[in-house]
Design a protein that fits this description.
A: alpha/beta; Rossmann fold; B: mainly alpha
Chain lengths: 510, 374
């Protein structure tokens, strides 16, 4: 038996002038977990897409089991035993786990022997220690269960090399630990595993070796035993980076926003928020933790006037002490009441910005009503755009370049820059650093702290618990649309927050 | 298992281009037109056995060969351009208004009604004001109905505007009979033929363009072009249209009342279509029939899209399409082809123009790996 599960030699892929992958070579042995580490835009996903047959390399060779192969389509990849688990699951909601697993496979005969299939799948489940009810429909499943279905689907199809693209981004700490156990079992069984992640402690916990990409180029491979978080960051970024986040003590925190018994329904009539109550203080960062889809989006949108609901959202003006009810008002009314709130939504290009417009056009989103009647005021937005480009170091050929074509980090800088420019009293951010490189993430944390020190109430919805624990003053944990706990970020632990993330109040639905 | 995968390079691959310099993209489009003319030449030779160069010459002759033909081409260009301008705000808002045809017709019907019933009794200025106001209002109503349904109940605007076309066409047939010139003819005939009351006439202008022309139509539509350019690019309403078209969520986030913008924009779009109906009836045909709009409501969509919503580029594209259409009609009669043959030619040319957009955005790579350097 050949020792290497897969070998890449001199792989190149260009998109126009952009070198997405430049001369990348790496090897995954059988019975080994390799972490592929790199910032967003470093070419990890492009590389993996070439293994799974979505892209075709411009140059280079791929060897599977020691034989050179050409992967022209996902079907080729599947025949070669390469299975990729994407970040976005490709499952059919109304089918059961088992039905999704066998979907699209060529059977031996026209009739499916479901009993035999179920037995085969169950064998796989027992062998690797998965937890899954094969007869459960996908629409009843948690994110972690859906991911399990995807992994079993690949194994059932005989995959010997598994590629997991940021598998832990959507999991709680406990679920992550379980996934890692399963991966270790698969390693023992001789499977080759590539795991893409940018959480360094996970890299150190799970992998045998780490390969690092930076801006499309292959930097090197190190044994995990010899690496530290700092050494990996340095290879990834290309320079030394301090990994500590500042957390100044709140100065004179004053109640600024009081949410009481807020309940709202999503478009299917299901309660997205259920009796949510909390207060946000000026001069403080309130972190919001929870599995994606636990009501974070609806909560922020209710406060911003984009989501109807019941209950009360009281805003207290820090200067005049005047109280205003925000619930049931649209964004324009809230603005006209003199309530200055800034909102960095999760969907940056779909909600916060207009992708086809340049920076000035996007500055106008907040200010286009100002100035003379009828005609647009063009000068101030342009000046603001220039100022933001300068101050936040936005990399763009010109301010009129469509923001859609900017990198994720620069898109976020444009959005955050605009929102902060309004001198807000309340700043809400949803997944503000998702997809951003380390340096940009730290400049965003810095900006949030700057706002906090100005006395702004900052609400930070995040997914990385380590960051939430380091950045926030208090953390509110949400689960299934309810508040499952509010803890002091300085004293709590990751485990405590992780448990709250799956704890339903009053046992409903748990 | 790897034995099943043959080592074979893909023969052809599509690769997305980076940006392309303007001159190169213009060159590609010109090349597309030239190639389409060569293909058309084969087609022409195949069915007529005459020299394609000669055929093309008579095409040019048919479109701009005489003063009268040039003015006809200009007149049709202006109507097509006006329609394209009318639908542009709606399309920019991603509201698929394919009901321009009907909006033009209702504008035409009310214009014809004013001409017929008030033409001889009203003073000229009042008559024109009435016609313009009536056509604007009629088109606006026709545009607003689907917009209200879209805004309030999220109905599908494509089907709705399409159905409104049929209502307008039936209404036109109905009035053709009510107002028919001779009993049983089913056509209205030229309205106010003797007095020419309510006709847009060159007599309104000092005689600088010659006797027979449509200079007033041209002036009005060019003014409309500039107006639309300014409206879309420099006004707050134009900005709102762009934001709503890009993302309704961003629009709501910005505090824009999306429903209001949809209704307002369709009112404007419909009103300009109605006004185009007025230009058609009062400004050139002086009658109305079910073929008055003549498919322009649909051709205008091509104009607007190809121009990427830029009103000034629309002037060129409308002219080109009308030029081709009128030229093709000429060769159809000169070489004893029927109208369908000319439509085939226009179709071939349009196919190449639209197809060239692919080559502006993508390039094809033959073979698999670039093998150099090994």
């Amino acid at each position: 038996m050949y020792e290497n599960a897969i070998e890449l030699k001199g792989i190149c892929k260009y998109f126009g002038k952009v070198k997405a992958n430049d001369n990348v070579s790496l090897t995954v042995k059988k019975g080994e977990i390799l972490s592929l580490l790199g910032e967003n835009g470093s070419g990890k996903t492009t590389l993996m897409n070439m293994l799974s047959g979505i892209y075709f390399p411009d140059k280079g060779q791929i060897f599977v089991d020691g034989t050179e192969v050409t992967i022209r389509s996902p079907k080729d990849a599947y025949l070669l035993g390469i299975g990729m688990i994407h970040q976005h699951f490709k499952l059919i909601d109304i089918f059961t786990a088992a039905e999704n697993i066998i979907l699209g496979m060529d059977g031996k005969s026209a009739v499916i022997n479901m009993k035999e299939v179920l037995e085969d799948i169950q064998k796989l489940i027992d062998r690797y220690g998965f937890q899954l009810d094969l007869n459960k429909k996908v629409y009843d499943m948690s994110v972690s269960e859906k991911q399990t279905v995807e992994i079993i689907k690949m194994l059932y199809r005989g995959a010997n090399l598994l590629i997991l693209d940021e598998p832990t981004a959507v999991l709680t700490p406990q679920e992550t630990e379980h996934l890692f156990d399963v991966l270790r079992n698969m390693r023992k069984d001789g499977k080759g595993i590539i795991i893409i992640t940018h959480k360094l402690h996970e890299v150190l916990a799970i992998s045998d070796r780490v390969s690092i990409l930076r801006k499309g180029a292959y930097i090197g491979t190190v044994n995990t035993g010899e690496a530290t978080e700092n050494s990996l960051t340095e290879m990834m970024v290309g320079e030394k980076v301090s990994l500590n986040i500042d957390r100044p003590k709140p100065k004179d925190p004053k109640k600024l926003l009081e949410v009481k018994n807020l309940t709202c329904l999503n478009k299917y009539g299901v309660k997205a928020l259920d009796q949510v109550s909390f207060t946000a203080m000026g001069g403080e960062i309130l972190g919001i933790a929870g599995i994606a889809g636990s009501g974070q989006k609806e909560l922020l949108e209710s406060i911003a006037g984009l989501q109807p609901g019941e209950g009360s959202i009281l805003f207290t003006d820090p200067e005049s002490g005047r109280e205003e009810e925000l619930l049931g008002k649209d964004p324009l009314k809230i603005k006209n009441m003199g309530v200055s709130l800034a909102f960095v939504p999760e969907d940056r290009l779909g909600m916060g910005l207009v992708g086809d417009m340049g920076m000035p056009g996007n500055m106008m989103i907040r200010s286009y009503r100002d100035g003379k009647p009828i005609m647009l005021e063009q000068k101030h937005p342009r000046e603001l755009a220039e100022a933001i480009k300068e101050k936040l170091e936005v990399v763009t050929p010109s301010i009129s370049y469509p923001v859609r074509r900017l990198s994720g980090g620069n898109v976020q800088k444009v959005l955050v820059g605009r929102e902060i420019a309004n001198a807000p009293k309340l700043l809400m951010t949803a997944y503000a650093v998702r997809g951003l490189d380390i340096n940009t993430s730290y400049s965003i944390y810095h900006l949030l702290n700057e706002q906090k020190e100005k006395g702004v109430a900052v609400i930070y919805v995040g997914e990385d618990l380590d960051v939430l624990l380091e950045l926030s003053d208090r953390i509110m944990v949400m689960c299934g649309g309810q508040v499952s706990g509010i803890v002091d970020a300085r004293t709590t632990t990751k485990e405590e927050v992780g448990l709250l993330m799956t704890k339903h109040r009053g046992g409903a639905g748990a | 298992m790897s034995a099943e995968v043959k080592r074979k390079e893909p023969f052809i691959r599509m690769v997305k281009r980076d940006s392309m310099p303007l001159w190169k993209s213009v060159l590609i489009r010109i090349a597309a037109i030239l190639i389409s003319l060569v293909v058309c030449a084969f087609f022409i030779y195949l069915i007529t056995h005459s020299n394609p160069v000669q055929v093309y010459r008579s095409m040019v002759d048919g479109a701009v060969g005489t003063g009268r033909r040039t003015w006809n081409t200009l007149r049709d260009t202006m109507i097509l351009l006006a329609t394209a301008l009318a639908i542009t705000p709606a399309f920019k808002m991603r509201f698929w208004n394919i009901g321009a045809e009907g909006q033009i017709l209702v504008g035409g019907i009310v214009t014809a009604a004013v001409l017929r019933y008030c033409g001889e009794s009203m003073p000229t200025a009042v008559l024109f004001l009435t016609m313009v106001a009536a056509s604007l209002a009629a088109g606006m109503v026709w545009g607003l109905i689907p917009a209200i349904f879209k805004a309030k109940w999220n109905t599908n605007e494509t089907l709705f505007t399409l159905m409104m076309n049929y209502i307008a066409i039936q209404l036109t047939s109905f009035f053709s009979i009510v107002w028919e010139a001779k009993k049983g003819s089913g056509t209205i005939g030229t309205i106010n033929q003797k007095t020419q009351a309510g006709w847009i006439s060159t007599k309104f202008l000092p005689d600088i363009f010659g006797n027979f022309n449509y200079s007033i139509n041209v002036i009005i539509v060019i003014a409309l072009t500039i107006g639309m350019f300014v409206y879309l690019k420099y006004t707050k309403q134009g900005y709102e249209i762009s934001v709503v078209g890009q993302s309704e969520n961003t629009a709501r986030y910005a505090g824009i009342n999306v429903k209001k913008v949809i209704m307002r924009t369709m009112a404007i779009s419909g009103a300009i279509c109605g006004f185009t109906g007025f230009l058609l009836v009062s400004g050139s045909s002086h009658t109305i029939s079910t073929s008055t709009a003549g498919g322009r409501g649909f051709t205008a969509i091509i104009v607007s899209w190809l121009a990427k919503f830029n009103p000034f580029v629309m002037i060129l594209i409308s002219f080109f399409l009308v030029f081709m259409g009128n030229g093709a009609t000429q060769i159809a009669s000169e070489f004893q082809l029927n109208e369908s043959a000319s439509e085939v030619i226009t179709g071939i040319i349009l196919f190449f123009i639209l197809g060239s957009e692919f080559f502006v955005n993508y390039k094809l790579v033959f073979g698999g790996h670039a093998k150099e350097g090994k």
